[in-house]
Design a protein that fits this description.
By secondary structure, the protein is α+β, with helices and mostly antiparallel strands. It has helices spanning 2-22, 32-38, 73-89, 102-116, 131-141, 145-154, 199-206, 247-253, and strands at residues 41-47, 53-57, 63-68, 160-167, 173-182, 193-194, 209-214, 222-229, 234-242. The chain has two domains: 2-121, Arc Repressor Mutant, subunit A (Orthogonal Bundle), CATH 1.10.10; 128-253. The protein has eight helices and nine strands.
Length: 264
């Protein structure tokens, strides 16, 4: 059964990549409406619904996609690409591909990432990635910054760690997700909390973006990267990992996690 699911996922992803050629997609942002029409989507409506979106099979065999008009533009695009994934994955009698099934949803998210940010359009831009580059890519592909960073790291072309921090009411920061790393392990575990009294955490509140250097990791490793504060979360993108070069740095690295020097 596991082998069948793996084979099906491979076929679905291959079909998603072929859609780009079949529909004549040559540059970003990808025309998702053109792809949806090609797959039989007759109507795409934006309504006041609680869900991000819904795929409806019509009596004549076509489809209707309903999107939440209250969601941001980038979210609506991701949802449309996700529903296209459900169309590609659909097959008679295959209950594992029903909406709500964990495997189905994960596969459709992978399809959405492939359609929104095709690897063929980003391979020459992956070197020297930082938050600024990711923001430009997000604008070009009309995707959220989080989705863009996840996609870049998922392609395995650059080393990095994507960390999503959630501000708490007492001024602390909680690591709500570290959705993707490549090349080195993140120095924090999900659920880690940074004390709001630490100077660099206060500076995160005062400055909306900037470079970071973290030297409080076990083993004396020092991480560098940058960050940007978004609407409800703080996105941190660490891009390098190195051993400390001085005894001063080694003494600092023995501090408790979250207490090290974070701003360069």
């Amino acid at each position: 059964m596991a082998r069948d699911a793996t084979d099906k996922a491979h076929r679905v992803m291959q079909a998603a990549r072929r859609l780009l050629d079949t529909c004549g997609i040559e540059r970003p942002p990808v025309d998702l409406v053109r792809i949806a029409r090609h797959l039989g989507v007759q109507r795409i409506r934006e309504l006041d619904i609680r869900l991000d979106g819904q795929l409806v099979e019509l009596a004549d065999g076509g489809y209707e996609v309903i999107l939440s008009r209250n969601a941001p533009h980038t979210r609506r695009r991701f949802t449309l690409a996700h529903e296209i994934g459900h169309i590609l994955a659909a097959s008679p009698g295959d209950e594992s591909m029903n909406c709500g099934d964990a495997a189905a949803e994960e596969l459709c998210n992978r399809v959405a990432a492939e359609l929104l940010i095709p690897e063929r359009f980003i391979t020459d831009r992956a070197a020297g990635m930082d938050v600024g580059t990711l923001r430009r890519l997000a604008t070009r592909f009309q995707c959220s910054l989080e989705a863009t960073a996840w996609r870049v790291l998922n392609m395995g072309q650059v080393a990095g760690a994507l960390l999503i921090w959630r501000p708490l009411e007492d001024g602390k920061l909680e690591l709500s997700a570290s959705p993707r790393t490549f090349g080195f392990a993140t120095p924090f575990e999900n659920g880690a909390v940074l004390d709001g009294a630490v100077p660099f955490v206060r500076q995160l509140t005062a400055q909306s973006e900037g470079p970071v250097t973290y030297g409080g990791a076990p083993g004396g490793r020092v991480y560098t990267g940058d960050y940007v504060r978004l609407n409800k979360v703080l996105l941190m993108y660490l891009t390098s990992e190195a051993r400390p070069r001085s005894s001063k740095t080694r003494r600092r690295s023995s501090a408790a996690p979250g207490q090290g020097e974070l701003f360069s």
